[in-house]
Amino acid sequence: MRAAIGTSDYHVGGETFINRHINLLFGGDTVVICGRFNGDDPYGKPLFVRREKLTGGDLITAPFWTLWNRARHSTSRLPFGRGKRDLARFLRDQRVEVILAEFGTQALALAPLANELGLPIFTYYRGTDASKALQSRRIQSAYRKLMPRLAGVFSVSQFLLDNLARHGVRHDNAHVIPSGVDVRRFAPGDKQPLSCLAVGRFVEKKAPLVTLQSFAEATADRPDARLDFVGDGPLLAPAQALAERLGVSGKVMFHGAQPHDMVRQALQQTQFFLQHSITARDGNTEGLPTAIQEAMACGCITVSTRHAGIPEAIDEGETGFLVDEHDAAGFTAAIGQAMDVGDKPAMAARARTVAEARFDNDVLLARLETRIRETLGR
62 falls in which pLDDT band (50, 70, 90)? Predict the structure, then answer.
């Protein structure tokens, strides 16, 4: 079955879940529709870039289409004029049979045209699109109008589906399928005692300053403990300054953004994975962090928060420890509790077993294909 994968940016190395769909969905019989092309197409897929410059005629009609689409669809994201005609031609020429829009916001742009062409379209909610985006009443309205146009909805966590439902956005054919992890590549290695790792953008919803402060407090009497941060972002410099003030610069290493293989190798050697996820002031949340799934597959004991889909992954006291969002003192205590676990290899082994059972992305990819085929009666 030939599928078009709709995404905002292509190719983004960190979007492993989307890249996996582009590369492997339905045996790799896929094409790509993107908003921006970043100049790298490692999979050699037929590619359509939506945000090309408008023609003179389209510039003249743009105000009309903006108002029309906002009134009818509650969004102005839809292609029109030559852009719409070119996209329709691309879908026909490529003999696309189904569209998977990665992120609900991409579905807003693609669903009306898909309906016009008689193409079934599904969307995949992953985090921001079902949290921060819902702070806008216009997006809430657009999503509610979108649902009848979709053949089905997928989400990486039940939390996101529940959050959508709280805003009146529901679909009868909705399924939770986490992004998953390659459990064959992400596997436990030789663990370094008292080693900790935090992976992710240095942004508000990751709360890296809380992670750093709690690590410093929890390991004050553990001079051999180490914490590695992988990622960059606006809070990186404040985190580095805080490490200096806390006097833990010798125990904390900031690596910046790194290739995915480096993250994998670090996880294999790391004993504890730390992630104090919170709901940002703009409403942004996680879905179910891929990094936590990867950490579990590598046999890391996770210390995190009761946030978004994280409790759907971590069995408290069995594979890791969770505290409430913003509970810095609790996070400090949880890190210490993790480090004091009597049989760390047994807890690490349970984390690995759960990852194999719940997050094997080969199994999850097959489940996604099955749900799509069943919906379409194939």
Answer: confident
Beta carbons within 10 angstroms of residue 7's beta carbon: 23
Q: What is the pLDDT confidence band of residue 64, given thresholds at 50, 70 and 90?
A: confident
CATH 3.40.50.2000, domain 195-358, yes or no: yes
> Tell me: the pLDDT tens digits for 84-108?
999 999 999 999 999 999 999 999 9
From CA 220, how far away is CA 246, in angstroms rounded?
10
Is 195-358 in the same CATH topology as 3-180+361-375? yes
Say yes or no to pLDDT of 124 above 70. Answer: yes
Instruction: Tell me how far the alpha carbon of residue 27 is from its chain's centroid.
Output: 22
Q: pTM of the prediction?
A: 0.92
Question: Can you give the residue ranges of every domain in the chain?
Answer: 3-180+361-375, 195-358
pLDDT given at position 351: 98
Query: What crossing angle do the helices spanning 290-297 and 260-269 adopt, rounded to 10°?
Result: 50
Summarize the confidence of residues 111-115 as an average pLDDT: 96
pLDDT surpassing 90 at residue 250:
yes
pLDDT at 322 over 70: yes
Taking CA atoms, 2 is separated from 14, 17, 73, 120, in Å, by: 25, 18, 27, 12
pLDDT at 52: 65
CA atoms within 13 A on the CB side of 254: 22
Q: Which CATH class is domain 3-180+361-375?
A: alpha beta
